[in-house]
Write a structure and sequence with these properties.
The protein has helices at about 20-35, 65, 105-110, 135-140, 185-195, 225-230, 235-240, 250-255, and strands at about 10-15, 40, 50-55, 70-80, 80-85, 90-95, 115-120, 130, 130-135, 150-165, 170-180, 200-210, 215, 235, 245, 275, 285-290, 295-300. The protein is an alpha+beta fold and about 300 residues long. Strands 1, 2, 3, 4, 7, 10, 11, 12, 13 and 14 form a 10-stranded mixed beta sheet that branches. Strands 15-16-17-18 form a 4-stranded mixed beta sheet, with helices on both faces. A two-stranded antiparallel ribbon has the order 5-6. It holds the Pfam family TruB_C_2.
Length: about 300
């Protein structure tokens, strides 16, 4: 009798195609990996392409902790037009000649949107307002406000400014930008807010995520490539790349796996999740420091 090959535990770094929701990619991966246990570490808008981190089998327990890491994007912001969704997917709501906007004004606007800021997410987003998705309220024509949230924009750089003419004949400016930001940041909201600050409106016309935490585009695979050869980053390698590593001896490993709260070295205080490994290099658990002890977040050993 042939033994069924078990799907390995680990991460799959997908180069998401445009037009797919993150859930579409998860559904595809369930078919490719032949398992229901697939999840993603943070969504990517349907229009956007690039790095989407999926967890397979036991690695799904890592995803909530990975979702909190820094992200990096390349995108194009069109100044001179607003849309309902703050990106190219939505209907046009206004057009304004942006040909007189100077590079100095753009740089000043970007400076205001850098560092620690309060951001109002796009109304057509998955955020829940009183238990109902924001996009559902927006599509039903409801008037509502989304509270601003703190986000950090570590870097917001303009690489190129291009004069263009929109389909409706409006002179617009297309900015090619890169953004490094905290989890929960909406790049299309940055485009909207930059356009508003400059008085001409703005929306996002293209977006590519190039990094999620330590996982970059060069290690990502398209769905077609994964269909041909499923490339899974082993769970131990994934944990080492994403979290501080704490190597323990056999005695501590046994105690940890038996639910004992170990004393944790001071160097891990305030670092968030820490990956614990035994002397054989087996990934045992994710823990975090709490009052000098290691509080278990997820056990893998």
């Amino acid at each position: 009798m042939t033994q069924k090959l078990r799907t390995p535990d680990g991460l799959v770094i997908v180069d998401k195609p445009s037009g797919f929701t993150s859930h579409d990619v998860v559904a595809k991966m369930r078919g490719i990996a032949k398992t229901r246990r697939v999840g993603h570490a943070g969504t990517l808008d349907p229009m956007a392409t690039g790095v989407l981190v999926l967890g397979v089998e036991r690695a799904t327990k890592l995803l909530g902790h990975l979702a909190l890491t820094e992200k990096e994007y390349l995108g194009t912001i069109r100044l001179g037009q607003n849309t309902l969704t703050d990106d190219a997917e939505g209907d046009l709501t206004s057009s304004t000649d942006a040909s007189q906007v100077t590079r100095e004004a753009v740089d000043a606007g970007i400076a205001k949107l850098s560092g620690a800021i309060m951001q109002v997410p796009s109304k057509v987003s998955a955020i829940k307002i009183d238990g109902v998705r924001s996009y559902k309220r927006a599509r039903e024509g409801e008037e509502f406000e989304i509270p601003a949230r703190p986000v950090t924009i570590s870097s917001f750089t303009v690489y190129d400014v291009r004069d263009a003419v929109a389909e409706d004949g409006t002179p617009v400016l297309d900015l090619v930008v890169s953004v490094v930001c905290s989890s929960g940041t909406y790049i299309r909201a940055l485009a909207r807010d930059l356009g508003a600050d400059l008085g001409v409106g703005g929306h996002l016309t293209a977006l590519r995520r190039t990094r999620v935490g330590p996982y970059k585009l060069d290690s990502a695979r398209t769905l077609e490539q994964l269909q041909e050869e499923l490339t899974v980053m082993p769970i131990a390698e994934a944990a080492t790349a994403a979290f501080p590593r704490w190597d323990v001896d056999d005695r501590r490993a046994r105690l940890l796996l038996n639910g004992v709260r170990l004393e944790i070295p001071e160097e891990y205080a305030g670092t968030g999740a820490v990956a614990v490994f035994d002397p054989a290099g087996q990934f045992l658990a994710l823990v975090e420091e709490q009052k000098g002890k290691a509080k278990s977040l997820a056990v893998f050993g």
